[in-house]
Design brief:
single chain; about 200 residues; alpha+beta; two-stranded antiparallel sheet; 7 helices
Length: about 200
Amino acid sequence: MDNILSFLTKFKTKQIFISLDDSLENIRIRGNLSNLSSSEKQYLIENKADIVSFLKSQFSLSQKIELAGRQVNYSISNAQRRLWVLSQFEGGSVAYNMPGSIHLNKEMDVECFKRAIDSVIGRHEVLRTVFREDEKGEVRQWILSKEELGFKIDYKDFRREENKQEKIKSYIAEDSYRAFDLEKGPLLRAGLLQVEEE
């Protein structure tokens, strides 16, 4: 099984993601298969049953995560506590930043895109969670409403800028190292940088 794990990890570095399909009896592959060599593709074919078995072993259908009852705030995990402690030091909170960018080359309705992101944030409490001390001085998770969170997508139009590629790289680099305020949130940022008409 270690061999399967090392291959799945290798595939992931090539932006190939393998998971179980809805039947839990077959694999689903996402990504550009041209990133794989012919021997890697052959490995997938020859070891499909073992891969399915490995992926099934990673979770148990009988173990359900129960919903927590509604509370004003919630306890934090040890990993969240470490994040909180780091955030108390100058520059420490950028250690957990996970920047990324995606190039979109189609015409897009910006307002529709913003509404879609807003809808996802409204649906998932984890995207509206912040960390604060309660009245006893204990750090806890607090879930904000969409309105309290105040999430906004930054939009910049670089279409008529000179040296736009350099300015975009600079914008992304600067944003990547901007700390998040764990107490106020939001704990994610998104920006749309328009370079061309599409």
